[in-house]
Amino acid sequence: MTITLEGITWDHPRGRTPLEASIARYRAERPDVAINWTARSLKDFGELPLEALAERFDLIIFDHPFIGQAAKRGLLADLSPHIDGAARGWLDAGAVGPSWRSYHWQGGIYGLPVDAAAHVAAYRPDLLEQARRFPPASFDQLLALARDLREHGLWVGVPACPIDAFCMVLTLAANLGQPAGDGARFIEPQFGAALLERLKQLVSLCHPSSVEMNPIQMLDQATCGDEIAYIPYTFGYTNYSRQVAGKPLRFTDIVAAGALGCSGALLGGAGFGVTGRCRNVAEAAHYGLWLCRPDYQRTHYLEDGGQPGMLQAWNDPACDSATGGFFTGTLRTLSSAYLRPRFAGYVPFFEESGIRTNAFLKGNGSAGDLVSWLNHAYGAALKAA
User: Fold this and answer.
1) Which spans in 74-161 are helix H?
2) Residue 287 pLDDT more than 80?
3) pLDDT averaged over every residue in the chain
4) Which residues of 48-82 are buried (b: 16+ CB within 10 A; e: fewer)?
5) pTM for the complete prediction?
């Protein structure tokens, strides 16, 4: 009897093609298992409630902030009973920064680290060379670069659509040594207001479409056009550093906003989860572990367009060469990434915070008022969790 597993991922080559390509390989080893993958948009990946997906699919590629909500409502299966000691050993040894830990919640394991990412910086070497400029090492240098590039018809760009505007707040807070959401209050008011004003100053100097763009849109524009020379905060995508159509980017550590170097970049990535509706959790977990195997990750998974979640791939010179130095350029940032809150109720707070932060960056409202709302709303979300 054939076991059929229906999966939902996100609609980008990084999220879709390595999974689609894995189907035939897995079936060659497990002939009685049929797998189908469907894709949803990046926006839905970050915002769409898991409830609707958990009713329709067995497998789900998801964002770790949903963990608390998913565990509380039984939307994802706890995979820990299906991860033996040997697998746990190589998962622990192969963790890239807090990526593997991000799927652990209150004693359970609700995801596998099939894909790893964090906020990093990206730039077009040819355009910076054209302008006789170099990647900045500090936030003040970043502001100066944004001004200088305008003299050459070039821009700094940042993905600052609602969700990504708030992602930058989280990165800057952690990079400045005061991670947001570490206690009952979201952020210290004076620090938060100064941070928001600093971010607003940066965005005012960036490409005018920044406040409408997500990372994929920004990276697409940077590789297909000749306007955006530098992106200080974006989630890394190996797809844009490979020798493919367009002009490849070089990825590197985030700009240091304070004295902590590249520490505190917001953790991203994507986890492999099994929904509560799945009738074959053991087989689903076996497939997820098969995808995460270090040898598979550093060969087929990368070659098929994926962004590996295992350290063995990140440390492999062949993988690094194939991606234009992506892994050596960003591993330090990912290793010290910031893991945001994941409690039930955090995602709705995150979404509304993004809308309000984006509005502030467009000139609506004050930094003080936004900080007051963030602290009040965060406290209310914690109490309701």
Assistant:
1) 85-93, 125-130, 139-150
2) yes
3) 95
4) bebeebbeebbbbbbbbbbbbbbbeeebbbbbeeb
5) 0.95
